[in-house]
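Hi support team,

I'm filing this because I wasn't sure whether my run with iron/sulfur cluster finished correctly. The job status page said complete, but I'd like someone to confirm that the output block is well-formed before I use it downstream. Pasting the exact inputs I used:
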Amino acid sequence: MILNDAQRLQSDLLAWYDRHRRTLPWRAPPGEVADPYAVWLSEIMLQQTTVATVKGYFERFLTRWPTVADLAAAPLDDVLTEWAGLGYYARARNLHKCANVVVERHGGRFPANEAVLLELPGIGRYTAAAIAAIAFDQGATVVDGNVERVISRLRAIETPLPDSKPEIWRWAEAITPAARAGDFAQAMMDLGATVCTPRTPLCMVCPWSWACEARAAGIAADLPRKKARKPRPTRYGMAFWLEREGKAGREVLLRRRPEEGLLGGMMEVPSSPWTEDPAADGWSHAPAQAEWTAVDEPVVHVFTHFRLELDVVRGEVSAGVVAEGVWVRLDRLADYALPTVMTKAIKAARG
Ligand code: SF4
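And here is everything the job wrote out:
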């Protein structure tokens, strides 16, 4: 690409952005500098989650913990509880860890340098570049799923993802401007989200239609190509909903999952290990001897790498029975950070 093309791509996109930018709660108004804490928080939340879902969570977090120091000082359990429903709980634990590192090592201010940002917990290449560009206007190149799609089309890259990533990065770097890098990054994201959409790109209103090779070749909607995914395996498990009559009302047994591994440190309805063997013996993991009754349909939950079928059973014990875990009053369940799969199990158990 000749330099003039890069400059025209930059100025056309920035002019389009000035007219059509999305208003998002974590974005600074035009001409103002974004708060690095808000940018970081939103970027961590947006990993694997849609803008529509993140908005409410973002506003609740910011109201409850207005600064990174407030978040660092919060008990981890409170953070996990606010996070419940966003999934991928390792992100929430890293969020809390990162807030503490920013307070302890950087005096409560996010570093502006991409390489230093990369050393913080939970911050990878994409997030470091996004914070450096959006919050500090550094000339960092930001490539998310939207940008991958836009660049694949702009250059008609037919190599399937993820193999095409290095080529996409090279092109993205070649057109990143030195000035207004943050606006440019957000403009590409907005273009991907509102114009260069996955199924039916609106090339007629696109500021880059004059340069777009996929549009010219009539293959825009077919790009980016993706390698065929391996089918998700299914795992099976059992969840044991155990109630008793407590001193102050009905109670249910919950348990904390081990710190390491999927949903680490989250509360759960006591469950058997999740295995790919549908005939595995789940009953030996029952938390107590009880008369168990099965819920009709298994709870199905889809994780990134597998699909889970959880058989839910209900039981009851008398107050003196010892079982590992914590007894929680049914009307206090909302106080606990329960992952989505467990809220599904609870709903099934309670009918
Ligand atoms: Fe996407 Fe069409 Fe614009 Fe090309 S012209 S970048 S395919 S919206």
